[in-house]
Amino acid sequence: MESSVECRKENGQFKQGFSGNPGGRPKDEYKVAELARSYTVEAVETLVDLMRHSRDDRVRGTASQALLDRGWGKAKVEVAASGGESYIEALQAAAEVIREAKDGVINQQ
After folding, report:
1. Which among 68, 81, 84, 98 counts the fewest CB atoms within 10 Å?
2. Counting Cβ atoms within 10 Å, is residue 54 exposed (0-12), middle (13-18) or buried (19+)?
């Protein structure tokens, strides 16, 4: 087996014909994913059943959200800043409020 130094270029990249993972991805990883996918229909049916028939509102809401996320993708989160400030300005203002709160707690002690 050649040393890793001999397999690499001066910049650290692997030379042509060498690999950092000569065996490739583990084959079991594909088997687990394939097995999980084989339960897709049953899993979706279970989520639908929970959404429709659970007595707990939290379970119904979680099942509904899971179905929506898988069907339509997760909703994008947008940050709305008050006063027309940019996202960075809003983050800086929030950090300042947190710093002031910490200073106030420390000064009170």
Report:
1. 84
2. middle
